[in-house]
Known about the structure:
Layout: E1 5-9, H1 15-24, H2 36-42, H3 51-58, H4 70-91, E2 94-96, E3 100-103, E4 111-112, E5 116-119, E6 126-133, H5 149-162, E7 166-172, E8 181-182, E9 185-187, H6 190-208, H7 220-231, H8 248-286, E10 291-295, E11 300-304, H9 315-321, H10 323-329
Parallel strand pairs: 6-7
Antiparallel strand pairs: 1-3, 2-5, 3-4, 5-6, 7-8, 7-9, 10-11
Helix pairs in contact: 2-5, 5-6, 9-10
Amino acid sequence: MSAPIILCDTAGMTNERWLECRAHGPKGDIEYTVGGSDVAVIFGVSPWTTPLELWMVKKGRAKPAVKANAKQLEMGHLLEPIAAHWYQSITGNTVTNDTNMYQHADHPYALADFDRRFIRKDDGEPGILECKSCTYHKAGDWANEAYPLYYELQLRYYLAVADVNIGAFAALWGNNPDVDFACPSLERDPVKEDMIFERLDEWIWSLKNDKPPTMSGIKPALALESLAKIYGASNPALPTVELPKKYEKNLRRLIALQGEVAEHNAELKRLDKEVQAHSARIAELMKEHEHGVLETAKDRILIDFVTKTSKRPDSKRLKKEYPNIYDEVLKVSESRTIKVSVESA
């Protein structure tokens, strides 16, 4: 390995210009690129994006999805200096800014810019610091020096691009750094690094040779959400698709599952009616009272019958009395669901 190539300084750069540099380099002469946040996606372990969705964006056949959590992402960016501050305070390592965009010395497609760099206090060894923030329910991902796999892949990729041997995370999820902060570290692993770049080389090959990835191994819910983003609404003008014979097993299993779901839904409706029948008898006794109790020899049965108020627009009245406003605020959503049936030959 050798030192990375500095492509440009991103300080003061607009987001649009940064995206241009990130996509094709500052001169626009790199056909396809990979960045740190792409690595987990390419490996199929990202919680947010599928390999096919990223592939379509890289090929220019789809636009990057509008982030539903834009404010959360902005908050994460604003919290980076705070996370970096506490990392330096807790570890004693010196943290520095680095606004350069780098290119891997041996893999021209591999670009990176880092949250922070650090110098280890014990031996002066340089490292890469990734600053992360999350909600409390994700704090367990960082327990006992652990870190999520999708972030590990990102940091190992950065170590390779920067040609340094140590990396660390500064993960923040609350306002008390004594208990709401973690700073696990990792060392460069040549075996894992080779595995990462072998996969990235294959990814670049797939782009150049127009071989899109499949949804194999991707969580079904994420796969369906991603396919909806990529292909959008159905087109009734298109011809019927002839599926290969190898999908017969999948289709027949879908038919069976749809039948099971229908049976369970019918049972749920029956049970709901029974719940309502028993509830009506108890409601007669409760009248205006919110709480009730039945004492038995072994326990106390508690009853709650509390009024909960919710407010929502009366859509029928709004449409009738204020049709123009109704049309302006109308939210259109689209969905597509696979339904399989059998037609006798």
